[in-house]
């Protein structure tokens, strides 16, 4: 077995500029992400509460980006939309350097979120086009592993810049992030593989029906329910964990950082390996297992014994490992399932609706989770476990992609 097979990596020959673009993009995101709120407070002098409100307003303004990305991807091609999205973010991050008022922050952040809303459906569709048959889950897994490496490395580099340069360090982070988006756009634009969007034929009226054709897909409507549930599950770790560990359980402030580090290391080490081992297995069944594992992790978070710090840290560590196992199962499988359902000429729209639900989850999760946590330490975890039960039930009626293809090929009346 080669090292590539052992690590579960996809075949990348002829597509290395795309891999390099993924890595560069992830590094830039990692530079800025940990300091997104602090930058506008420390470097621009805006109150933290105002920054939080401005970013929430910007996220709301950007909700239509995902659905808009779908038709753009299907008409222009995924590669071009990825380039456009990266160039838009180059402009907005460069604008952050000269912006100083709250309204400018709202406008620039909204445009940044629009760039992200365009990027994710286009990037997912591009992977679907360039990946070898049977290796799409590996490509999605590699992308996720690269993003975790980039966020970790970028976060460390950003911390050094801030410690060294103060306010100037924050400005350097923003400019470096803009530069990484520019480099990523150049790498994607320079690639000349067979990633053209298939043109709809006269026998494909669904190509003209647009989102009506997508929403007519009953199987995908079920998948959209799970997309929203799994988005909430994924966001729970970043939104809930620190407040739960420090404020509710009264544990040391270093504990959440350790748990985040554990999550990152496990994703980097295991994502491609797990994805490769799942090849050939029914995607709905794998996602059901992911929902069950996620539910177990939330129940473990709910029963952390706060009165015994040593035991609390041990349970939190186990719960984080179980949570990460669910992520490893779900992330590449969900994307591969969407590709299996989507006709090539409508992939952009399928991924566009997924991005819309992710955007809605990003808006809803902070206010919902914090309100639940204020009501009871158990409540958010129990609600999340219940949502996982809903996803498990919705997936029960979905057939594996191979069975759906076989049925579609059967002659009428067979």
Task: Describe the protein.
It contains 18 helices and no strands. Helix 3 packs across helix 4 (48-61) and helix 4 crosses helix 7 (102-130). It has helices at residues 3-7, 16-32, 36-42, 48-61, 65-76, 78-98, 102-130, 136-165, 167-190, 206-209, 211-215, 218-248, 255-277, 283-302, 309-341, 347-375, 379-395, 401-409. The chain is globular. Mean pLDDT is 85; it is low at 195-207 and 402-414. The termini are far apart. Helix content is 80%, strand content 0%. The longest helix is centred in the last third of the chain and has 33 residues, at 309-341. By secondary structure, it is an all-alpha fold.
List descriptors.
disordered C terminus
Structure described in brief:
The chain is built from 18 helices and no strands.
């Amino acid at each position: 077995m080669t090292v590539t097979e052992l690590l579960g990596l996809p075949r990348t020959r002829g597509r290395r500029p795309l891999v390099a673009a993924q890595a560069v993009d992830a590094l830039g995101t990692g530079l800025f992400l940990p300091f997104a709120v602090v930058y506008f407070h420390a470097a621009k002098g805006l109150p933290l509460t105002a920054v939080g409100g401005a970013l929430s307003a910007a996220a709301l303004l950007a909700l239509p980006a995902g659905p808009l990305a779908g038709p753009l991807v299907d008409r222009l091609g995924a590669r071009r939309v990825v380039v456009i999205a990266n160039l838009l973010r180059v402009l907005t991050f460069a604008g952050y350097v000269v912006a100083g008022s709250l309204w400018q922050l709202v406008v620039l952040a909204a445009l940044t979120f629009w760039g992200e809303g365009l990027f994710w459906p286009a990037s997912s569709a591009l992977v679907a086009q360039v990946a070898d048959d049977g290796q799409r889950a590996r490509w999605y897994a590699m992308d996720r592993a690269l993003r975790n490496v980039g966020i970790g490395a970028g976060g460390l580099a950003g911390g050094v810049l801030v410690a060294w340069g103060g306010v100037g360090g924050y400005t350097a982070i923003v400019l470096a992030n803009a530069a990484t988006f520019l480099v990523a756009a150049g790498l994607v634009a320079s690639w000349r593989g067979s990633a053209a969007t298939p043109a709809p034929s006269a026998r494909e009226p669904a190509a003209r029906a647009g989102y009506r054709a997508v929403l007519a897909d009953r199987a995908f409507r079920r998948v959209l329910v799970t997309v929203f549930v799994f988005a909430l599950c994924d966001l729970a770790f970043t939104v809930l964990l620190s407040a739960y560990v420090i404020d509710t359980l009264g544990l040391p402030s270093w504990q959440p950082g350790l748990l985040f580090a554990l999550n990152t290391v496990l994703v980097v080490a295991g994502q491609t390996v797990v994805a490769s081992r799942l090849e050939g297995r029914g995607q709905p069944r794998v996602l059901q297992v992911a929902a069950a594992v996620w539910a177990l992790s939330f129940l473990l978070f709910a029963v952390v014994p706060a009165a015994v710090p040593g035991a609390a840290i041990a349970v939190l560590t186990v719960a984080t490992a179980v949570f990460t196992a669910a992520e490893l199962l779900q992330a590449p499988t969900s994307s591969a399932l969407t590709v299996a359902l989507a006709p090539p000429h409508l992939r952009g729209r399928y991924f566009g609706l997924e991005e819309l639900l992710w955007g809605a989850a990003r808006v809803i999760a902070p206010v919902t989770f914090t309100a639940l946590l204020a009501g009871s330490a158990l409540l958010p975890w129990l609600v999340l476990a219940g949502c996982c039960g809903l996803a498990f039930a919705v997936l029960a009626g979905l057939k594996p992609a191979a069975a759906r293809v076989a049925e579609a090929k059967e002659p009428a009346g067979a």
